[in-house]
Amino acid sequence: MSDLRERALELDSADQLAGVRGAFVLDTVSDHAADAAGVYLDGNSLGALPANVPGRVEDVVRRQWGELRIRSWTESGWWTAPERIGDLIAPLVGAAAGQIVVGDSTSVNVFKALVGAVRLAGAGRDEILVDAATFPTDGYIAASAARMTGCEVRAVQPGEVPDALNSRTAAVLLNHVDYRSGRLHDLPGLTAAVRAAGAVSVWDLCHSAGALPVGLDAHGVDLAVGCTYKFLNGGPGSPAYLYVAERHQAAFDSPLPGWNSHAEPFGMRPEYEAADGAVRGRVGTPDILSMLALEAALEVWQRPDVSVGGVRAKSLALTDFFLECVAAYVPEGRVEVVTPLAHAERGSQIALRCADAGEVMGRLIAAGVVGDFRAPDVLRFGFTPLYLGFADVERAARVLAEILR
Amino acid sequence: MSDLRERALELDSADQLAGVRGAFVLDTVSDHAADAAGVYLDGNSLGALPANVPGRVEDVVRRQWGELRIRSWTESGWWTAPERIGDLIAPLVGAAAGQIVVGDSTSVNVFKALVGAVRLAGAGRDEILVDAATFPTDGYIAASAARMTGCEVRAVQPGEVPDALNSRTAAVLLNHVDYRSGRLHDLPGLTAAVRAAGAVSVWDLCHSAGALPVGLDAHGVDLAVGCTYKFLNGGPGSPAYLYVAERHQAAFDSPLPGWNSHAEPFGMRPEYEAADGAVRGRVGTPDILSMLALEAALEVWQRPDVSVGGVRAKSLALTDFFLECVAAYVPEGRVEVVTPLAHAERGSQIALRCADAGEVMGRLIAAGVVGDFRAPDVLRFGFTPLYLGFADVERAARVLAEILR
């Protein structure tokens, strides 16, 4: 056995999160003809299935919907699910309760947050700064929010935001972790700079929530959004969430004031009056099946052996070890590491650039090592510490090297 | 046995849709201590569980998500579900394929449709007419759409729309069936009037789709939205849909241009370029669990014994019979029928006004007859022809009369 394989086994036996793996449904050895089970390194796109979700969903469908039907809106807690589940996400992103509401897609929440931010910033501020490397939907939605609020959008690299801020800046939309490179941006420093300029910060946490500490309250973030199907394992298209810092809630003015955000939703009143608190970020009827699957998926964070700090420590150990294995196994010059080596600048994924990335990823997936390809030339590997071990990582690097040779 | 009970049994034995009842999960006799099974008359709020949905959802969760994971976006058809399921809804509302896309809530779709309508109407038109009796969320969202497009909102009764139309009218948002009274509005006539005035029609089909013919294409409707959890039985909070008539698609300019509506969504291009066709109405990642539960729920419409025309005929027979039973059983003057008696003005629900409606509905539900209460004084009973029979209707009226006496 090679040194790295032995190291992997040692690291796995010392891993304090190793026991959590059983809380997820993963491939068994027999699923693949290869030397062992598949390795799922795409949890940064769609998290694996938590083992408790199928039973929960079955109960929601057969009993809550099938038997209780309409009564479940109250008796099964459907109506309050968006804020209840928001409070489950809150500790994972460093937020006190009552500031997060779950529902709609990330794109729709970016719209709420950005329009809300421009309105919070007040008159005379008419520019929205957007991460130039952002996942595209944030940029598209920012352009629409700007158009509809009389603002202009300017794309800037996150590191250049402090220099770009000025008295016209209304809102700044940034990604905590870059979706392509895996770079972790300086949320505390950039948030402080935005605040000092009198603008409103909006953070997209899609690639950080559930993988590393965020500290929304501690760092004074104004607004934030995120999805729940990556490191939070909520399932395909599970609802996104919106964070509105408590100090902004009374003035938060949503562009999507649906009946679910009304102070008295069943009063059926023709005049809109916004509810207090996080509920103000709701819009229409929440999709209950996806929402309650997410609620079950979040239960893993209640385990005494699971903490965001522990997850982050293991995430860095996993990505360090992957880089070490890649350096040892992959022929020199065959790939370029895109993700920063410094821990302070690294999310929970490793991006490798190689010219034939699309074809390479196809062969990797066929061999049971599932990452994804981001055009034009990036191999992307996500590391979910809750269900990945070091032997998985070593195997993935070994299979990658075989394909690249 | 009373005459009406005998009539009910005769009507049930002649009912060509009677065989469809088995496609839904309904109460069994043992569920209630009363003389028979419960009667679910709230399908206009949340449709009953179709019998094929639990198995489908289990497959989506355990196999598509749990085993195939990320591969399901292509291999299980997740990515194309919004337009594929839109095409299943299309024939139910009289639309040719390629004009409906499923996703987001009704409220969010009202926003897309109204902003899109104002932009289609063009410069110089700055007024949005909204049904004065609308379900509130449509009015709230209309106010936001107006605010963000420089328009004003004017509330008018649907019958007064022809007189209210003028050269300033950009868009007209109307409900096909009034959620409270059950009144069916004149979609063909009002659509023609809106078109003649050079404005854009937006119809909310929440309370008509799946219950009666809509004829979107035949009547030249411009835009429409609707939910899928009432007469389409998609489940709690199942995604809504947006119809954009083919002639408007190339110019439809969504205020929520998320990456799912991009011409090349995986190109990850910083510039937005709208996709052609119905897909232009998509926004972010669709919630797959709710969406595919809906797809299963829509399969009942593929049965040879199910048609919109047959459903409408039975709906009118059911509501006629309910009114007849109420007239026979309920003490004179105890309730007032709010829903129009004329078939051409009746949806698939009956609303009865009585002073103590809230308390009466509580007692009805306790007795197994489930309708709902709409403040301040309306008892609302929805009739879903796919799973309700005439004996159910007779029993509901009888229990209601016992409570009211």
Characterize the structure shown.
The structure is a homodimer of 405-residue chains. By secondary structure, the first copy, chain A, is α/β, with parallel strands linked by helices. The first copy, chain A, has helices at residues 3-14, 53-68, 72-75, 81-89, 106-121, 136-149, 161-164, 187-196, 246-249, 288-297, 308-329, 357-366, 390-404, and strands at residues 24-25, 39-40, 49-50, 100-102, 127-131, 152-156, 169-175, 200-204, 223-226, 241-244, 336-337, 349-353, 369-370, 372-374, 378-382. In chain A, a hairpin with a 3-residue loop joins strand 14 (372-374) and strand 15 (378-382). The two termini of chain A are 20 Å apart. Chains A and B meet through helix 2, helix 5, helix 6 and helix 10 of A and helix 2, helix 5, helix 6 and helix 10 of B.
How are the strands ordered across the major sheet of chain A? 4-10-9-8-7-5-6
Query: How many DSSP E strands of chain A?
Result: 15
Largest protein interface, residues of each chain: A-B, 82 and 82 residues
Oligomeric state, counting identical vs distinct chains: homodimer
How is the biggest beta sheet of chain A arranged? 7 strands, mixed
Overall 3D shape of chain A: globular
Tally of individual helices of chain A: 13
- Share of residues in strands of chain A: 5-15%
* Gyration radius from CA atoms of chain A, angstroms: 22 Å
User: H/E order of the elements of chain A?
Assistant: HEEEHHHEHEHEHEHEEEHHHEEHEEEH
Give average pLDDT of chain A, whole number: 96
Give the end-to-end Cα distance of chain A, rounded to a whole number of Å. 20 Å
Share of helix of chain A, binned: 25-40%
Q: Pick out the low-confidence regions of chain A.
A: 29-34
Report the structural category of chain A: alpha/beta
